[in-house]
Amino acid sequence: MVSRDDVSVLILAGGQALRMGGVDKARQLYQGVPLIEHVICAAQPFTNRIVISANQNIEYYKTLADDVVVDQPPWQTIGPLGGLFAMLPSLEDQQSILILPCDTPRISTLALESLLAASKAAPSKVHCLKTENGWQPLHAVLPVARLKQCLSEYLDRAEHFGVMGFYNFLGCESVYWDRQEELLNINRIEELNL
User: Fold this and answer.
1) Which ranges of 93-170 does DSSP label H, i.e. alpha helix?
2) Cα angle 32-59-74, degrees, rounded to a multiple of 5
3) What structural domains and CATH numbers belong to the chain?
4) Which residue, 61, 66, 62, is CA-closest to 50?
5) Res 18 pLDDT > 70
6) pTM of the model
7) Least crowded by CB within 10 Å, which of 6, 78, 88, 157?
8) What number of CA atoms fall less than 13 Å from residue 16's CA on the CB side?
9) Which residues contact 95 (CB under 8 A, 6 or more apart)?
10) Residue 12, marked binder
11) pLDDT, tens digit, 9 for 90 and up, residues 107-134
C-alpha cells in the first residue's frame, strides 16, 4: 500500500449546489452526520494530510482539515480543476493526490484502497473509479509531479474544464468498482434521506 506520507487528500466542497438551492452541500446531514465528515472518515486511513476545497464557511472547514484552499483567479467557478489549481502551491513531497467529492457519503475505504493500489502499480497515470453506471471522475488518484507540470498549461489552453479531459490529457486508467451503491451522489435535499 502507498505510504500515508505520500498521499494528500483533496475533498471538493467548493461547488454552488444549485440543485440544492445554493446551501453549503457538504454541511448537510446524512444519517445525522455532515456529508463531508463521511468522506473524511473513509479517506483518513490513507493520508496524513486532508485538504478541503471550499469557497464559503472557511472557518468551519478549517476545523475538519489540515488546510483549506479557495478558488484562485483566474480559475474561480470552473469546478474541480479550480480546486486542484488552488492546491498546487501547497503540494510538497507527496507523490499522489486522492480527490473526492464531498457528496458521496457511502464511499468505502475498500474502494479508495483499490484506487491507491492501482496508482502504486502505475504511478505516472491518473486512476479513477468506474462502475456499471460509468466513470466516477471525482474519485481519482492523480500523480503530483504530472499535475504540477501540466495543469496550468492545460487550463490556459482548454476550451472546456471537465476533469475527464484533463485526465485523458495526462493518461487515465479506470479502476472498476462493482458496488455502485457506494457511489450514491447526493445532489438534492430529498436524497439526504436515502
Assistant:
1) 109-121, 144-157, 163-170
2) 110
3) 7-191 (3.90.550.10)
4) 66
5) no
6) 0.93
7) 157
8) 6
9) 2, 6, 7, 123, 143, 144, 145
10) yes
11) 999 999 999 999 999 999 999 999 999 9
Q: Which pLDDT band, with edges at 50, 70 and 90, does 187 fall under?
A: confident
C-alpha cell at 21: 438551492
- Say whether 71 counts as a known binding-site residue: yes
Q: In whole angstroms, give the CA distance from residue 101 to residue 137.
A: 10
**Mean residue pLDDT across the chain:** 91
Instruction: Tell me the C-alpha distance between 191 and 148, whole Å.
Output: 36
Separation between Cα atoms, residue 72 and residue 20, nearest integer Å = 24
Alpha-carbon torsion, ordered 51, 52, 56, 57, to 10 deg: -80
Q: Would the annotation count 103 as a binding residue? A: yes
Asked whether residue 14 is marked as a ligand-binding residue, the answer is yes
